[in-house]
Design goal:
Layout lengths: L1 E6 L1 H11 L9 H7 L5 E11 L2 E13 L2 E5 L5 E2 L5 H18 L3 E7 L18 E2 L1 E3 L4 H6 L3 H13 L3 E4 L1 H6 L2 H14 L6 H11 L4 E7 L5 E10 L2 E9 L8 H16 L4 E3 L15 H4 L7 E2 L3 E5 L2 H24 L8 E6 L3 H14 L4 E4 L4 H4 L5 E4 L5 H14 L4 E5 L3 H10 L7 E2 L5 H8 L1 H10 L7 E5 L15 E5 L6 H4 L7 E3 L2 H13 L5 E6 L8 E8 L5 E12 L9 E6 L3 H13 L4 E9 L6 E7 L7 H5 L4 H9 L8 E3 L4 E3 L3 H6 L4 H12 L3 E2 L10 H21 L9
Parallel strand pairs: 4-6, 12-13, 16-17, 16-19, 17-18, 19-20, 26-30, 31-32
Antiparallel strand pairs: 1-2, 2-3, 3-4, 3-5, 6-15, 7-14, 8-13, 9-10, 10-11, 11-12, 21-24, 22-23, 22-24, 25-26, 25-28, 26-27, 27-31, 28-29
Helix pairs in contact: 2-8, 5-9, 14-15
Amino acid sequence: MIEAKEITHNELEARAERLGINLPIEQTATWAAYQATIEGRMPWGCVALEEDGRTLALISLIDYETHGYHYLRANHAPVWAEQPSEATEAAAIDALAAHVRGRDRKQKFMRVSILHELESTTPVLSGIPYDNTVVIDVTGGDEEILARMKPRGRRDVRKALRESPVTCADETDRAASDFSEYYAVMVETAQRDGFNPAPQSDYEDMIRLLGPNHCRVFAGRDEKGRVVTWSIVTINGTRAVRYYGASLNETMRQHVTDKLVYFECCDLGANKGCLDYDMMAIGSDFSPKLLGLNEFKTKFTKQVTAVAPDRDVPLHKTFYKALTAAKNLRDRKAEKAAAAKPAKPREDLVPIVLGGDIGAYALAREFHEAYHVKPQMLASSPIAAVAHSQILDVHPVERLSEEEVTRVVCEIAEKNAEKTCVVVGNTDALIKVLSNCRDNFPVNCVTPIPDADVIDQVSDKITFAQLCREHGLDTPLTEVVHLAGDGKIAPSAIPFPLVAKPARSSEYAAHMAHGFKKVYFVHEQAELDRLWDALREDGFHGDFLVQELIEGDDTYMDSLTLYMGTNGKAQLAGSAQVLLEDHAPSMLGNPVVMVTRPMPELWEKAAELLESVGYRGFANFDIKRDKKTGRTLFIEVNPRMGRNSYYVCAAGVNPMRALVTDVVDGKGKRLLKADETVLYTLVPLSLAKRYVLDPALAAEVDGLIAADKVVDPQRYAADMAPRRRLAVELTEKNQIRKFAKYYPEPTETSF
């Protein structure tokens, strides 16, 4: 039987030493003395949880008085001698609760760190608990510390050491004498990140009362001697913890904090006797509000450390239930108040969109809707609906080459040096341009695309098929045809008719300008042989794929869009069933009518695939369901949102809001699901209805139209001045002529 035995702080620390436990600083007598100086807090006592005379765990508790009631809190405790089973932990917490009830009836609940989701516990009423952290090994010296980081961490630290304009030092004595300049940086950080800083006296008291053996202040100063970044670090035994940190907005992108953290690691290991440096809290599914911390913190080590999160243990259940109800009511009122506030322009944000087609306009509209800002668009020949837009500014360029994109982006960024420029593109070719030139952009630019090697891995349809197989996703039967050289190409073993298309779209784009199609539907071997000869004659020496033809018309195609956040997890998912695709040769396969609908199982599997290769940014999957067999086949993935990105917005989640929340605000959230059902169209409704042969789908389309659940990304109420309205009308009328020419009658195969 597990018992709770009251002990002194001296006894707690002595037992910890005998057990070889390095106590968290919050479980020491020093911390208890510091807490006693804070209004509304008082050390309550220490408890040993024992079984048959053997110490299982130790805990120091602080009495918190707030809003007229008391509760007990134990930071990072119980501290276990050995990892407990769920049954052992449950019995120990029950024993602790019984001990508290027996000694102090005024305590309404306990907030303690608990590994398992026990029946006796609930999620915390307040605060942001976490179950993962980053612990850096600071032994072995400067180079070994650097070598143990992720490649991204080593790269950023080395860049900071070369270029970051700060000098780092241990400034504990200086901060103890006057904390005002450090506090000013914390105030700016709080305004940026949306929290209320503690009073300056709280930081001053912490430094003074814990003393230099337990609390150090590190800072980075610029050439003018200003503090631009700082950390308060607690130390107990061999463990250091980064308790607080702050930095100025103007230097965030100069890697000043990377340089400071590396300095801290080296100093703590070499001069303070520390073995580990805990960065304190990163996000997870348990604590999604902290996901914005992950990109920065996780690069300093290759491992993530699991910890027991805080949970509440109600002691007076009726009272605790009332507290929960009151909190829920306050939350609902706060949500209503926030929703009622008029939208204001996001003055710190400058979207830069590459391209002048409908896909680029969709991104611009998403930015404008989300943040009421005017995107800057780089275009060589924008369509009329873009050229006459009032929600964006067009920067004409001769062509969207790496040189021109770099030049114009740098000009825009330098004119907006105090703002964050988000640079996006929406075609394979433009993603490649951004991949090659983003390192030349100014520090106030963010370009949320995957790394080049990841793009190559998923865009190559051969390796994509391999990844699909590894993650339990089906793909069409495929042959790879190498067109390099002049050797004879063997006949296809796949039955005709079949499909032929380039393995890598980016290296094929130039040949489409010479009249080659995006996708070929081939009926016999002679036709395929003629295609190989024509491609070689035109100078194409890449790979082509020959695939089985999957039966079913356009309505058997699906589109799936994901945003993989800086934490490596999916932060946005949306999907749609295609009803009609473009049939013009150069646009073949681009959806023009879709019905959005959630596909959670496919979202999960696709996200796992992308997560396995370290994917970051937007991805769009083409999927087809086999009419004959019912198989769901993943055709390809594109490293971008896709021309029809606005269908995700129409389904309930603005993709640019998800993007900015993650890469600009650093507040990546739990997976956002675009799960509303709407009719998305780029063509007149008469076409949308005409080409749907399935009676059930046709009835669904009629129902969505009747319910006014129809969205056309070109028709934006905030951007329908007469000239642009006319351009949109003419564009859509032209769709009628295009379909009459290339696909005059609907067929069961869409041929």
